[in-house]
From TrEMBL:
InterPro entries: Solute-binding_3/MltF_N, TAT_signal. Gene3D superfamilies: Periplasmic binding protein-like II (3.40.190.10). Residues 1-30 form the signal peptide. It comes from the Bacteria. Coiled coil: none annotated. This is Glutamate-binding protein. Keywords: Signal. Residues 42-268 form the Solute-binding protein family 3/N-terminal domain. It comes from Corynebacterium otitidis ATCC 51513.
């Protein structure tokens, strides 16, 4: 079963939505898109691979985490929808700042992770989901902070391109914002004492605290909207987005999603499973 012929139709839809000027920049997915690659048996997934609980390696070196397990389960369900075998997945480490370009260039079929609230309006991506919601949060050295106000005027670290960047300019303000490439880099800066805290979301920070509760501590920002985790495909690949949303609704309805969240993010506060609404 092949979906290669669907590419021109999706490209035309994307062009109509974006206009001719944006066509070259945003409407050039790999031929066939995600569903074509699922049918061909090989899919490339982009994700961070250095966040315990979400995506990383276990002590045996195997990939592990919610984003890993969820992508595997969702792509298996998509293959079932198409009457195909479960595809082989190639995992591609991907920074938040590189996601749009990777999707535009066809290097990646689908991207997992947290997206800004306005991501649905991004002309480069079509966003399926959500599958998880997490409150904006902070992480600091254990026993040193009772809240972000204690670190006002000091250096705060955020991941470049992350949806929490706006959080550091509201409420207690840092003296300086340091943007680094990954959550792990920010956490290591806290350990070294070069920054006072990391601003991210509760899902991304809970695993670091769980692994080192004697030295790291997390808290949440009050009165903030949760960050949504979703699955992004190339703009105009509406068939793929619909298939991913159907698969997410399935795993939410049968309890698989809640089980995966509890298994990979045990005890995480400010984190909850989510699912897209009905079509």
């Amino acid at each position: 079963m092949s979906h290669r012929r669907a590419a021109p139709r999706r490209a035309a839809a994307c062009a109509a939505a974006l206009g001719a000027a944006a066509l070259a920049a945003a409407c050039a997915p790999a031929e066939g898109g995600l569903l074509g690659d699922v049918s061909d048996g090989s899919v490339t997934v982009g994700t961070t691979l250095d966040v315990p609980g979400l995506a990383g390696r276990d002590p045996g070196g195997r990939l592990d985490g919610l984003d890993i397990a969820l992508a595997e389960e969702v792509l298996k369900r998509v293959a079932d929808q198409l009457g195909e075998e479960e595809p082989q997945i190639t995992w591609q480490p991907l920074a938040a700042t590189d996601r749009d370009n990777a999707l535009r260039g066809g290097e990646i079929d689908v991207v997992t992770g947290a997206f800004a609230p306005d991501a649905a309006a991004n002309p480069a991506v079509a966003l399926a989901g959500p599958y998880l919601e997490a409150q904006p949060a902070y992480l600091g050295r254990a026993g040193e902070l009772s809240g972000p106000a204690d670190a006002a005027g000091e250096t705060w670290c955020v991941v470049a391109g992350s949806p929490e960047v706006a959080e550091v300019v509201s409420g207690p303000r840092p003296g300086r914002v340091l943007e680094l490439a990954s959550t792990r880099d920010c956490v290591e800066s806290v350990r070294r004492g070069t920054v006072a805290l990391v601003v991210a979301d509760a899902a991304r920070l809970s695993g670091f605290e769980r692994l080192a509760p004697e030295s790291l501590e997390t808290g949440r920002f009050d009165g903030t909207k949760p960050v949504a985790y979703g699955l992004a495909v190339h703009a105009g690949d509406d068939d793929a987005k619909a298939a991913l949303d159907r698969a997410l609704r399935e795993i939410e309805a049968d309890g698989t999603l809640s089980r995966l969240v509890a298994e990979h993010l045990p005890g995480a506060e400010g984190v909850s499973a989510a699912a897209p609404g009905e079509e």
